[in-house]
Task: inverse folding
């Protein structure tokens, strides 16, 4: 008998009840369910779990914490000894990549100006830049970054992927100082870790050429908001942000009024179909766990 | 000595003057230039040439008409015997593909609603569809269509390319009746020919499932505007149109007010960099012509 705990009855049904599997439902609020001490396989809420350290401490049988998000930062250092942390890599990757690409093209092709003309029923052409031959730096060479690279490559962009360490087709993050001055577009698709916290600070932004575009579909805390606001207000850079710091962005925050900025409210993942994709992963992982096979997407603690 | 005629002095400089090459400049307005009878290689204006049949008749030495557009329809049947028509395939393909993809993602992810929230400084999430697992039909398997296919494939879409005839990886256009009922997104990237004129009529649109998305980056005349307007007004379909019929769209045209529609004013090509790319092609073609080698992008008349 394996015991799995998921956040809702809808999700329990996506796991599927069957002989040899006990499915507990708990959303992390209030008291843990009866049988908490039997939970081996825990699926916390997407996007933000409320499961306390106290509750985790009562899960003495815990072996797997399977997240449904690509980002794992709230769980780093929290998973008890004897259990592994697995990311939801792949669940939201495609939808996040398509949003990043649409945001970047919207800025480069100045689509908001065409939308304003449409609202006025005016057919007004203007010439814009395009991606053919444009130099793009993608920070983060995981699922999201490689999908963005493929799409922008199809539009003729010269793409450089950047990861923590250099490998085939991927530059190392310590090469950034040499790469930024040539980058006309920078896409952030890397995990939020202590190393990437405010990686994009005033110095990073100052190194970019005039009229460069910053796209953030990673986490808001990767960017120094005040430094970006200064560059936007000076009309030197353009940005598409699906994530912000703080988040949600309060309605009186000055970022809302910055020029050459498109904001979406952290909707890269979490589309209508994410749950179906998420529980396809959960079922695969559960099957591997039950068969004693290695799990996918295991996060080395301290990533 | 070869004589080439281009529409502007800027373009003459991109061709480059040199020994053995006579470069005439004429934009097609008024009288043809002195030496019209020597023109072998003609580059008409992008996007719309005003060169008359009368002027063409005076170009007795004409061997090549090199267009700078992917579409060739205004020139079909006009090129004198002994001359070939070459398209500008590749010049605008990447920029047109990126616009098609951005338009499709904007509709699927309902980005105009997020833009409205941004204008009101409101962080309001909503769940939307995405391309992962979505069935996409791309009509036109040329430069634009294959680029769109690669990008949407990177977002997890199940893409079917459709061409005039079936070949590896491409379905034939006469298979459409069986393909349309399953197509959640249809991208038009085919040439305007007598066969494709109003191909997308009321019957075509009626065959699409509810809430399907139509993207037109080909030519406005491929779509029956009135039939599309009916479907949009009924809120049964969504559309992104970079091209319309008529074009430019008059400010009192009802299409401007249709729901679930994004319009851009035929700006898929013609970006800031198109001329540099266009004259890279012209120089290559001229070199081939002078060397007696086969030209690229030759259009069989009657295409």
Result:
């Amino acid at each position: 008998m394996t015991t799995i705990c998921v956040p809702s009855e809808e999700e329990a049904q996506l796991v599927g009840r069957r002989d040899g599997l006990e499915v507990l439902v708990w959303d992390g609020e209030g008291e843990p369910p009866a049988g908490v001490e039997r939970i081996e396989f825990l699926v916390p809420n997407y996007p933000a779990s409320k499961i306390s350290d106290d509750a985790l401490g009562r899960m003495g049988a815990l072996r797997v914490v399977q997240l449904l998000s690509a980002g794992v930062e709230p769980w780093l250092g929290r998973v008890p000894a004897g259990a592994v942390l697995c990311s939801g890599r792949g669940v939201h990757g495609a939808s996040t990549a398509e949003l990043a690409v649409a945001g970047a093209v919207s800025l480069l092709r100045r689509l908001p100006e065409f939308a304003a003309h449409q609202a006025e029923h005016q057919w007004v052409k203007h010439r814009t830049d395009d991606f053919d031959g444009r130099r793009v730096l993608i920070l983060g060479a995981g699922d999201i970054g490689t999908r963005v690279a493929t799409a922008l490559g199809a539009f003729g962009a010269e793409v450089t992927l950047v990861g923590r360490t250099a490998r085939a087709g991927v530059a190392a993050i310590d090469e950034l100082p040499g790469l930024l001055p040539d980058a006309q577009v920078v896409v952030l698709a890397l995990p939020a870790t202590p190393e990437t916290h405010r990686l994009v600070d005033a110095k990073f932004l100052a190194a970019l050429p005039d009229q460069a575009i910053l796209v953030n579909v990673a986490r808001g805390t990767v960017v120094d908001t005040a430094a970006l606001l200064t560059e936007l207000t000076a009309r030197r850079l353009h940005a598409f942000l699906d994530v912000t710091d703080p988040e949600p962005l309060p309605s009186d925050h000055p970022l809302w009024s910055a020029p050459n900025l498109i904001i979406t409210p952290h909707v890269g993942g979490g589309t209508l179909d994410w749950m179906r994709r998420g529980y396809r992963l959960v079922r695969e992982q559960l099957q591997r766990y039950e068969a004693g096979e290695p799990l996918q997407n295991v996060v080395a603690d301290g990533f």
Chain A touches chain B through 57 residues (CB under 8 Å). Chain A has nine helices and 13 strands. The mean pLDDT of chain A is 95. Residues 187 and 215 of chain A are 5 Å apart (CA to CA).
